[in-house]
Amino acid sequence: MTNFVQLHLLTSYPPANLNRDDLGRPKTARMGGVDRLRVSSQSLKRHWRTSEVFEEALAGHIGTRTKRLGADVERHLVDGGVKEKSAHEWARAIAGVFGKLQQKDSADIEQLAHISPEERDAVFALADTLIAENRAPDDEELKLLRHRPSAADIALFGRMLAADPGFNVEAACQVAHAITVHRVAVEDDYFTAVDDLNEGDEDMGAAHIGETGFAAGLFYSYLCIDRDQLVANLDGDEALADRAMAALTEAAVKVSPRGKQNSFGSRAYASYVLAERGPQQPRSLSVAFLKPVKGEGDDAVDALERQVSNFDAVYGECADGRCRLSALTGEGSLDALKRFVTQG
C-alpha cells in the first residue's frame, strides 16, 4: 500500500512582500470570509528546488528547467567547427525531442522543459559525435536522448510536456499554497530615494518616489509526498528517494521565498512542524484555520493539534506515526524530523 509523508508547517514572517501578484502587491486569498496572505505553491517549490540546502544534498541529481537547450547545443556545434546552417538544423532536431519549437529561425523550445542531468549529458555527447563525424543526427539517436530521469526534483515535482505526454513524469509531491492563519490587511510602504550629490541649492525634493505593498503573518503550509511514487520515479533508488525527502523537508522548514528580501529582510524558519507518516488517505489541516486565529503562535498550534485529534476521533487514526518540532518551546529537532520522514 502507498506510504505517504505529510508535513504541516507554521512559519511566521515579519512585514514582507514574499510573493507578488500582477500589480506587485502581496498575493492574497479569501478564506473563512476574511482576506489572508498567500504564497503560491509554484513560488515555494522553486525556492526549495533552487536553494543551497536542496542543491548541496542532491548534487548531481537535479534537473534544469530551460527553453534554451537548443541554443546551447547550436553554440556547442558551431564552436566545434560545424557550419552555422547545419548547426542550427541539427540543434533544432535535438531540442525538438524535448518540446515543441518556437519559430523556424530559433532553436528554443516553446515551453520550459525540465531536463535531467543524464538527458543533458546524452544531448552533448550526441553533439560531440555529430561534430566528429560531421553529419546530422538520425531518428534512432534522437529517440535515445530520452532517459527515465533520476533527477530528484523532477521525481518530486513532476514534469509535463503537452506536445508529448509519453515524456511526462507524475509528481510524487503535492504542495498547497501557504496561507496565513489569521485575517490580514495589506498595507502600503511609501518610500523615497535621495540624490547623494543634491545639496538642496535648487531642488529639495526626492530623486525617486515609490510605494510597495507589504503585510506580516503566520502561515500554514502543507505538503504531501507519495514515497512509493517517488521511488518509482527514481527507478527504484530508495537511497536517493530518502535523500530527496530529507532535503525537501529541510528546505521547506528553512528556506524562505526571496521576494523583496533586500527591502524587508524577512527570512524565517518554521516555528512549528508536524510530520505524519502512513498509508492513510492524506488530508490537509487547513480547516483548523477556517475560523481565523486571533492570538499568538501558541493559539495556532493549539488549533492545529485540536484538528488532528478531531480527525482521528471521527475517522480513526489518520497516521501510523507522528513527529513534531517546535521552536516555540524548544522541543524536537530537525535531525529527528528528517530521520522520521525517511523511515519508509
Number of self-contained structural domains: 2
Number of helices: 12
Q: Which overall shape is indicated by the principal axes computed on the Cα atoms?
A: flat
Main sheet properties: 9 strands, antiparallel
SS elements, strand count:
11
Average pLDDT, rounded to a whole number, is 91
Helix/strand order: EEEHHEHHEHHHEEEEHHHEHEH
Q: Low-confidence parts lasting 5 or more residues at pLDDT below 50?
A: none
Share of β-strand residues: 15-25%
Radius of gyration: 24 Å
Instruction: Tell me roughly what share of residues is in helical segments.
Output: 25-40%
- The computed structural class is alpha+beta
Structure description:
- This protein is α+β, with helices and mostly antiparallel strands and 344 residues long.
- The chain folds into 2 domains: 202 residues, no CATH class; 84 residues.
- It contains 12 helices and 11 strands.
- Strands 1, 2, 3, 6, 7, 8, 9, 10 and 11 form a 9-stranded antiparallel beta sheet that branches. It has a two-stranded antiparallel ribbon with strand order 4-5.
- A hairpin with a 2-residue loop joins strand 2 and strand 3.
- The mean pLDDT is 91.
